[in-house]
Design goal:
The chain is α+β, with helices and mostly antiparallel strands. It has helices at residues 84-89, 105-123, 130-155, 165-177, 184-191, 195-206, 210-228, 233-239, 245-256, 260-267; strands spanning 2-6, 22-23, 27-32, 37-41, 44-48, 53-56, 61-63, 72-77, 100-101. The strands form 2 sheets. A 5-stranded antiparallel sheet has the order 1-8-3-6-9, covered by helices on one side. Strand 4 and strand 5 form a beta hairpin. Helix 8 packs across helix 9 (245-256). The longest helix is centred in the middle third of the chain and has 26 residues, at 130-155. The two termini are 30 Å apart. Residues 168-266 form the HTH araC/xylS-type domain. This is Transcriptional regulator. It comes from Streptomyces rubradiris (Streptomyces achromogenes subsp. rubradiris). Pfam families: AraC_binding, HTH_18.
Length: 268
Amino acid sequence: MQIGPMGTGRTWHTEAPLHRVHRIDFHVVMLFTGGPVRHMIDFAEYEAGAGDLLWIRPGQVHRFSRDCEYRGTVLTMQPGFLPRSTVEAAGLYRYDLPPLLHPGPAQLTALQAALDQLRREYEDTATLPLSLHTAVLRHTLTACLLRLAHLAASSAQTCPPHADSTFIRFRDAVERGFAVNHSVSAYADALGYSRRTLVRAVRAATGETPKGFIDKRVILEAKRLLAHTDMPIGRVGAAVGFPDAANFSKFFHLHTGQTPVAFRADMR
């Protein structure tokens, strides 16, 4: 993990211009002390001001704004730094949670204090042996992330706090299998539910059908690959479960109004 200030002297990415789309394999949490800052995350534009946070998760794509000045504190963390129990408790892979967070005054004060303490521990490499220093960092980071996760969960609109366990199991199954399985019936069978039960649970939690939920996840991954990689269109289609490139192009156009080639061009 790393934590430090954002500012004009910070190097964000050494291999590509900031205005290019990047796909990350680690967590990024930015707490802003100025603004507004416009930042693209998974093809949605967010505007953050002083006191707001952006939380970008592994696998998501994002793009910096060339016209905005980034000021505040940034925390980056590799997924394997924390134990599984902490990862689950903090919801580190809840991709349904909003990336833009607006803490209230008391929440902001607590989060800022937690980040300040984490930064002090991170920079203090002299008073403890390395093993203890790392252990203290993990515990301090856990406390900070639990506060952040509570804020994210309470801000969520896409998944009610008491979402049906049927939907949660379906959501997690889709996240694991969307690249090879687009069938609502197959998910229902694998999870031990009737199709009607699955439809009812997904509609109650999201307002959409299970098929719509699956298709949306497939489209998101296709967009990520098109924007971030130079993979041929056929390979992008195959990566999200369409062995035939023509079928993938039709599916993509149906859901986005653009061909994959046109979408890629717009992102470059």
